[in-house]
């Protein structure tokens, strides 16, 4: 009864398909389809979400993410350069910052800048500024590590060649090293944008006016107002995918391009 | 080739060659002393080849001249600059000193012409038009004027090295340092690079060349310096050092280099 390698592989495949079918069947049988129909896939009642979920929610999510990314990229570059500095104080500051903001939940940062800072300094920041700073400061920490890796991946000879042409250190970094580092980190940087897009939802902890709603807030609002159960969240989730899937495809394209040029 | 050089206008005129003077130079990495008191003078327009086994310190010596390595002791004068003066304007000095690396180190995100113009525009503040002209002239000079829009990864090793030479020349250096410029090349492209260097020597450029190309050293160098273990063991007229060395270590090294198939079992 000995089987050949090919037969064994075939049997193994059938077993795997069998397990998958049984698991799906069990899930389908265990589901309360009537409730799911009224409270998760109840698309009949979500009409009122449109068009504002696109015109306001999607737009705001994109705006918040973009602002956070701009701050994150500038802050991240500064931190990465500090971390590679020969001056120990800069390295310590950068390391402390990065460890701190990577280590605490982004939600706490939003609360700190949304409620803590206004309380402590008696200032009132508008929501956009809070998102920009909170998201940007968290993003800086992650992007700094990505950029640092990219800067270190540029061969040392590039800096030497630039310096030996008489370029000062900063000029060599700006014209020669940083452009190459960005090319290297484009794929991981795109992934950072995807994470940021999702983190922008944390703004829900702040009091928002209707025109400041982003996708998640629209979804949560819909839950209480539309009587369609969780369906509005499903819709909001779908719009996140509308943003993130093209970004993933973009990252993959960058990756294959850089793999090609490296040879 | 000389016609091209002499007929060109502006910044690419005659070479204003500088000399180098090195005195009692010492360099250590931790407890490992790589240069143990080197003294060497290169006159303006002179071509000096540094030869010696790997690890003898010749590349380190070359890199000390434009301060890619910081010497621990001793003095280096390049043109009107004292490189070892802590207050020297290092960037200003390096503009006078062209450097060619073993691994070319072309900027991969820029095409051949931009490789030659970027330091001209950013450091010398030349206009883009002038920089383009100088770049094109120097690419012509190394025989690659027709490939000025190619990126480094579209060029062969020998072509990349010639672009690297053109890039250095575009800054109108008064001294050129070559760090094993042909060691990373396919054998069939070595000749093109050497012939560019030969022409440069004829034009009167001061050149300090770390090389294993004994034929080139014999033919082009005014002087050859043999280094071993961080010291200058022997130096003199190229023909004499290579054909009739006086020191045992030089003889041994040259025998190995000139006849690599000669195998000697040591015990």
List keywords for this structure.
heterodimer, A: 263 residues, mainly alpha, 79% helix, 0% strand, flat, B: 267 residues, alpha/beta, six-stranded mixed β-sheet, 10 helices, 10 strands, 37% helix, disordered N terminus
Account of the 3D structure:
The complex is a heterodimer of chains A (263) and B (267). Chain A has helices spanning 5-30, 33-39, 52-83, 88-103, 106-121, 127-153, 156-164, 169-199, 215-226, 231-262. Chain A is mainly α and 263 residues long. The termini of chain A are far apart. By secondary structure, chain B is an alpha/beta fold. In chain B, helix 6 (157-169) runs parallel beside helix 7. The model of chain B is unreliable at 1-12 (pLDDT under 50). Classes of the chains: A mainly alpha (263), B alpha/beta (267). The interface between A and B is medium-sized, with 20 and 26 residues.
Element layout with pairings:
The complex is a heterodimer of chains A (263) and B (267).
Chain A: H1 5-30, H2 33-39, H3 52-83, H4 88-103, H5 106-121, H6 127-153, H7 156-164, H8 169-199, H9 215-226, H10 231-262
Helix pairs in contact in A: 3-4, 3-6, 3-8, 3-9, 3-10, 4-6, 5-6, 6-8, 7-8, 8-10, 9-10
Chain B: H1 2-7, E1 20-29, E2 32-42, E3 47-51, H2 58-65, E4 73-78, E5 81-82, H3 90-95, E6 97-100, H4 112-122, H5 128-141, H6 157-169, E7 175-179, H7 187-202, E8 206-210, H8 214-220, E9 223-228, E10 231-237, H9 238-243, H10 248-258
Parallel strand pairs in B: 3-8, 3-9, 6-7, 7-8
Antiparallel strand pairs in B: 1-2, 1-4, 4-5, 9-10
Helix pairs in contact in B: 4-5, 4-6, 5-6, 6-7
């Amino acid at each position: 009864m000995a089987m050949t390698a090919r037969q064994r592989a075939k049997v193994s495949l059938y077993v795997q398909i069998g397990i998958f079918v049984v698991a799906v069947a069990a899930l389908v049988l265990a589901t309360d389809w009537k409730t799911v129909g009224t409270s998760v896939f109840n698309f009949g009642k979500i009409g009122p979400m449109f068009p504002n979920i696109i015109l306001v929610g999607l737009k705001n999510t994109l705006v918040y993410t973009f602002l956070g990314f701009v701050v994150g990229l500038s802050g991240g570059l500064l931190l990465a350069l500090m971390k590679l500095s020969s001056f120990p104080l800069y390295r310590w500051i950068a390391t402390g910052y990065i460890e701190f903001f990577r280590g605490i939940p982004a939600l706490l940062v939003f609360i700190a800048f949304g409620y803590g800072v206004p309380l402590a300094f008696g200032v009132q920041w508008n929501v956009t500024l809070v998102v920009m700073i909170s998201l940007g400061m968290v993003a800086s920490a992650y992007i700094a590590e990505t950029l640092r890796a990219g800067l270190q991946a540029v061969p040392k000879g590039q800096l030497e060649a630039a310096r030996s042409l008489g370029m000062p250190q900063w000029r060599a970094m700006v014209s020669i090293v940083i452009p190459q580092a960005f090319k290297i980190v484009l794929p991981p940087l795109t992934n950072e944008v995807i994470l940021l897009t999702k983190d922008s939802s944390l703004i829900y902890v702040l009091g928002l006016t209707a025109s400041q709603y982003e996708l998640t807030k629209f979804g949560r609002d819909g839950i209480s107002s539309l009587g369609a159960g969780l369906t509005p969240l499903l819709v909001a989730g779908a719009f996140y995918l509308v943003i993130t899937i093209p970004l993933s495809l973009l990252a993959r394209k960058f990756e294959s391009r850089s793999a090609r040029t490296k040879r | 080739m000389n016609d091209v050089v002499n007929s060109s206008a502006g910044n690419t005129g005659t070479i204003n060659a500088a000399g180098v003077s090195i005195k009692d130079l010492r360099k250590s990495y931790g407890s490992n002393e790589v240069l143990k008191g080197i003294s060497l003078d290169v006159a303006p327009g002179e071509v000096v080849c540094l030869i010696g086994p790997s690890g003898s310190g010749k590349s380190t010596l070359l890199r000390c001249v434009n301060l890619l390595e910081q010497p621990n002791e001793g003095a280096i004068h390049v043109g009107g600059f004292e490189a070892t003066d802590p207050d020297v304007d290092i960037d200003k000095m390096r503009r006078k000193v062209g450097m060619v690396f073993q691994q070319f180190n072309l900027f991969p995100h820029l095409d051949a012409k931009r490789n030659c113009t970027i330091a001209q525009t950013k450091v010398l503040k030349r206009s883009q038009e002038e920089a383009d002209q100088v770049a094109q002239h120097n690419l012509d000079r190394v025989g690659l004027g027709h490939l000025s829009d190619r990126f480094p990864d579209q060029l062969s090793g020998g072509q990349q090295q010639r672009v690297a030479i053109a890039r250095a020349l575009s800054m109108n250096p008064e001294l050129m340092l070559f760090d094993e410029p042909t060691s990373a090349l396919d054998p069939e492209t070595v000749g093109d690079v050497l012939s560019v260097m030969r022409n440069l020597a004829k034009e009167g450029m001061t050149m300090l060349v770390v090389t294993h190309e004994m034929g080139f050293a014999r033919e082009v160098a005014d002087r050859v310096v043999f280094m071993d273990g961080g010291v200058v063991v022997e130096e003199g007229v190229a023909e004499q050092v290579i054909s009739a060395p006086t020191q045992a270590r030089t003889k041994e090294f040259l025998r190995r280099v000139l006849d690599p198939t000669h195998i000697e079992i040591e015990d």
